[in-house]
Design a protein that fits this description.
This protein has about 425 residues and is of the alpha+beta class. The chain is built from 9 helices and 11 strands. The protein is globular, with a radius of gyration of 23 Å.
Length: about 425
């Protein structure tokens, strides 16, 4: 019997135009974030966990070059053969890489060369998006979408990392001028969540990272969730009550780190707790603002001191369906968490990432993708905790109710805070 010919996949021109527009918008935003910075600023690496701004710009170009252009653009000429070694982050399947703690030693290539690299990649990407065959486009498009969400993650890292770097400068320079306070203070209230058999995780349609899937059922006991994150004033009460001096509030590993690192307050707070370092330089601590730059250990200790607990990530996800939609993301321009607006469950998105009590592990049925991109999330599912909701430096449109951020429990340079939960529903 003769084989039946398969009709070629049809791609509407508007689909390619929309993809090209999204690509340009997100790539331009990365460069816009660097405009307040000098060339010298963009070379700084203030600790092993952070990366220079210049490295972020190059790495996000490398991602498209390695995983999209290298696979789906026949005849593509790589900008520089050495860049695969310099700007690979952690992809073992791709090959060796420059050590992460030494990224600040990369004075070469120059910043101008990195920008030329980005232009080279952008030109090739636009050509691929607009002219590649329909079958190739079908295969490349998911990786292009992944690459854009990956770039948005690095946009947040650019601001996290440069904040840490500028904080180490004795002049305490500002990245941007301060903005007026956006909201008024509102008291914390408690909201009952009935629980039951619930669906958690991302559906099969639409973009989501692999760690957000599969959609699965989980049982949740009734609980209560605080209406807003913990404020600076509330956390100051913990400090004043000897919170950092009493082992009873702390997990064993946490108490060891408190002593070894001499933790006495959140990262960036001054010794007298009057000011903290922000992207606008040193500013007075707003008592009504959400406390920020807490480790999981500090969030957990505060919850114990308060007689409450951290929410589990599935509880957070179920509760967010009834949350207020207002959000303070990077597009708002504040670049810092703001006091809570009025509402039932507010600031579930934006302002501060919220630590959960959940270790970062795969959902039931999770499988990493095949190939190098399978290393994106799955291999970090050990020794980390999940945060939810986004922050004041998260790109708008990047996070979802199912989005799972994760950091080690001692990490403090993320814009991370705490919302309390209670079993007494």
């Amino acid at each position: 019997m003769a084989a039946v010919a398969r009709a070629p996949t049809r791609v509407e021109p508007s689909e390619r135009t929309d993809a090209c527009r999204a690509y340009h918008t997100i790539r331009r935003q990365s460069e816009r974030l660097t405009e307040p910075l000098s060339t010298e600023d963009q070379l700084l690496q203030s600790m092993p966990d952070a990366s220079p701004t210049k490295w972020h710009l190059a790495h996000t170009a490398w991602f498209f070059e390695e995983f999209v252009l290298g696979a789906y653009a026949p005849g593509y000429a790589r900008f520089d053969a050495d860049f695969g070694f310099l700007f690979n982050s952690y992809y073992e399947a791709v090959g060796p890489r420059h050590p992460r703690p030494e990224r600040g030693m990369l004075s070469r290539p120059s910043l101008d060369t990195v920008h030329a690299y980005r232009r080279h990649v952008d030109q090739a990407m636009v050509s691929l998006i607009m002219t590649t065959g329909a079958d190739c486009w079908t295969k490349a498009r998911p990786l292009i979408e992944l690459g854009l969400h990956h770039e948005q993650q690095h946009q947040e890292l650019i601001l996290m990392d440069i904040k840490h770097a500028l904080s180490r400068n004795p002049l305490k320079p500002a990245y941007a001028p301060p903005t007026p306070r956006h909201r008024a203070e509102h008291a914390q209230t408690w909201h009952a969540i009935p629980g039951g058999l619930c669906l958690v995780g991302a559906k099969s349609d639409g973009f989501a990272f692999d760690n957000e899937r599969p959609l699965h059922k989980t049982w949740i006991e009734p609980f209560r969730l605080a209406s807003r994150p913990v404020t600076n004033a509330e956390y100051r009460a913990f400090i004043d009550d000897g919170g950092y001096k009493h082992a009873a509030f702390w997990l064993a590993d946490a108490w060891r780190i408190v002593g070894e690192r001499d933790w006495r307050a959140p990262l960036y707070w001054s010794d007298d707790f009057s000011v903290h370092f922000t992207l606008a330089g040193e500013q007075p601590i707003d008592p009504a603002g959400p406390v920020c730059h807490l480790s999981f250990y500090e969030a957990d200790a505060y919850a114990r001191w308060a007689g409450k607990r951290l929410p589990r990530e599935e509880e957070w996800e179920v509760a967010v369906s009834s949350a207020d939609a207002q959000a303070n993301f990077v597009s708002a321009g504040a670049l810092h968490p703001q006091p809570a607006p009025a509402g039932a469950l507010v600031q579930m998105f934006g302002d501060v990432w919220e630590w959960t009590a959940s270790p970062y592990v795969g959902y039931p049925g999770f499988r990493s993708a095949s190939g190098a991109v399978g290393e994106y999330n799955g291999k970090f599912m050990c020794g980390q905790f999940v945060l939810r909701g986004g922050s004041a430096v998260t790109p708008e449109g990047h996070v979802r109710p199912t989005y799972r951020n994760f950091f080690p429990p001692d990490a403090r340079w993320a814009f991370s805070g705490v919302r309390l939960a209670d079993d007494n529903a």
